[in-house]
Amino acid sequence: MGESINPDEIKAEQETMELTALLKQKFPKAVLDFHSHRLDETVVIERDSLEKVCRFLRDDSRCAFEIMIDLTAVDGLEINMNPRFEMVYHFKSLTHASRIRIKVPLDEDDCRIASISNIWKSADWYERECYDMFGIIFEGHPDLKRILMYEEFEGYPLRKDYPIDKQQPLMELKEIEERHKYGREL
Amino acid sequence: MTDMNALQTRMETSTSGADFSSSVMTIEIGPAHPAMHGIVRFTTHLDGELIIGMDPEIGYLHRGFEKESENSKWIQVIPYTDRLNYVSPLLCNIGYSMAVEKLYGIEAPRRAEFTRVIMGEISRITDHLTCLGAAAMEIGAFTFFLWFIKAREYLWELVEAMTGARLTTNWTRFGGNAMDLPDGFLHDLEDRLSKLEGIMEECDKLLTRNKIFIDRVKDIGAISKEDALSYGFSGPMLRACGIPYDVRRADPYSVYDELDFEIPVGSTGDCFDRFLVRMEEIRQSTSIIKQAADKMPEGPFMTDERMLHYPDKKDVYGNIEGLIDHFKMVMEGHSPPAGEIYMPTEGGNGEIGFYLVSDGSGDPVRVRLRPPCFNFVQAMPLITVGHYVADIVPIFGSINMIGGELDR
Fold first, then answer.
1. Which of A39, A54, A69 to mutate to test the interface with B (most CBs of B within 10 A)?
2. Cβ atoms B339, A5 nearer than 8 A
3. Is the pLDDT confidence value at A186 over 50?
4. pTM, whole model, 2 decimals?
5. 20 to 30 A Cα–Cα from A21, which one of A103, B80, B90, B230?
């Protein structure tokens, strides 16, 4: 692989960003880093304060992020990122017409993070997908199971050490299993 | 919803020994069902005909778009984006190319941007025509479907004239488009748009005030503003709830800030509102296309920046710089500078967002697509419970689920 991400280069484009300043003032210990590469405001926070920061982002009138747009992870194995994983959250505020990206570094040995599906419903399925693809455990998620792959699938396909041409044995036909009586949403 | 609560109370408080749970029937709708727009399974729990629970299962069309993209060169991802949304492939092409352009920090020439607006809006219209036509057919309005597919055909012939393909368009590049407007395209466009307007007028008369149709869709599958926001809705589904969020207006990209258009909104967020919002969006898109065609500037349709477009064959065979550039671009591919970006664009269904991470080498570190209909299918239990089995068809039709981008 070529050169790794050079943080100084990205920092050079730094402008004073209101939301970053607000988060730094409100959670001085939680904010690890920030940048605004191509004007995408990004704040890196530590894992344990994710839920607090998310609640603040949704409920505070200066933030008012009503929509959780996207949630995903990045596996930095090939670019020697330390720690290996990074959670990436995108939020959109309609009130202030602003966007923000929150990133949380995650250790390979301890891939756990608090679920935010009780704050935004859309996080429910996105977290299931992230678990399915990267094997990240979301603590407090109501029903963390695979969503795109099948239950017997072994490994996490979007991790960089999962080979793209790996084949898995076909499953035998299953009996119709017992399900939760009235579906999950009741 | 009240019916469901009553039933639950009845079941929980039953002391007579009657086994109400035996009256609950579980049926599987899908994965392959004539009224399913893609392959998806709904495990539906019914009390008589009343839906009291639903469990959607997706993933049948998962083909590893993100994994495949991360193991390709940046330019090789463009053909994969055709297959994401198979009724408006150009919108995904444009979304991805604009994302990589943002990563580079460049803009396409103005002629390319106006052409993209025209082709993008044509795709939005074909997307809405397919969605409305199919949804109406499933509840009995067959004429409407045939008329709309006829209109879609007029537009797909334009796409074919432009890109050479109807579905596998592979049309945009980083910093421009693969082809310029063909001869006589704008004249042909005008002619076809007036045909489309005629069809829209006829179909509007046929369905919008039709009592049989309204009875099937009014107050069906409604969702409140708060729930829609919490579920991360976007596009026509969110606008039908009365929230005027459109990426073209909220975060203007391309040349949409120079064009005049309105954002239609509904009020109750039911299937009928979604129908009306999409009908109006077709008209607005028609007006956008006309404005963009009037303003179409002269000039290049592809950037001439080095290492972004493949050098002309004249240079490849004629001088050493051209030859080296060509060799490096073929062997190493495009190398956007290191960094990460999120680029939202307005697709037919809602916000299509690409999150890209580059390390400065020619290989993408992360290519992530935010699929708009993921959230809609997640909300299916919320908007169907309390309705009847027959209502699943109009509700699912109005969601416009596209398996290609849902499962990726």
1. A69
2. yes
3. no
4. 0.86
5. B230
What does B32-84 look like in DSSP terms, one character per residue? S-TT-SSS-EEEEEEETTEEEEEEEE--TT---HHHHHHTS-TGGGHHHHHTT
Q: Residue B310: what are its φ and ψ, rounded to 5°?
A: -65, 135
Kindly identify which residue of chain B lies nearest to residue A68, measuring between CA atoms: B232
Question: Given the DSSP bridges, would you call strands B339-346 and B351-358 parallel, antiparallel or unpaired?
Answer: antiparallel
Domains of chain B as residue ranges with CATH = 65-407 (1.10.645.10)
Which of A1-5, B115-119, B179-183 is the least confident region? A1-5
Helix pair B89-104, B110-138: axis angle to 10 deg: 150
The domain limits of chain A are 7-111
Give the C-alpha separation, A158 to B70, whole Å. Answer: 9
The values of phi and psi at residue A30, to 5°, are -80, -30
Strands A112-114 and A137-139: parallel
Greatest Cα-to-Cα distance within chain A, rounded to the nearest angstrom: 59
Residue A27 Cα, gap to closest chain B Cα (Å): 24
Of A1, A37, A158, Cβ closest to residue B66: A158
What are the C-alpha distances in Å from B316 to residues B300, B306, B320, B322? Answer: 20, 13, 7, 4
B14 C-beta neighbours (distance < 10 Å), count = 12
Cβ distance of A186 and B351 shorter than 8 Å: no
Cα–Cα dist A134/A151, whole Å: 14
* Mean pLDDT rounded to a whole number for chain B: 87
- Nearest-CA neighbor of B228 among B262, B273, B263? B273
From the candidates B229, B239, B251, B328, which should be mutated to test the interface with A, based on the most A CB atoms within 10 A? B229
* Percent of residues, chain B, with pLDDT higher than 90: 29
Domain covering A7-111 in this structure, CATH number = 3.30.460.80
Q: Which of B117, B378, B362 is nearest to B255 (CA)?
A: B117
B325 token code pair: 């550039």
CA distance B322 to B311: 6
3-state helix, strand, coil in chain B (%, to 5): 50, 10, 35
Supply the ipTM of this predicted assembly: 0.85
CB-CB under 8 Å, A6 with B338? yes
Which residues on A lie below 8 Å from B98 (Cβ)? none
If you search the block for the tokens 């693969």, which residue do you land on? B178
State the sign of the Cα–Cα–Cα–Cα dihedral B286, B287, B293, B296: negative
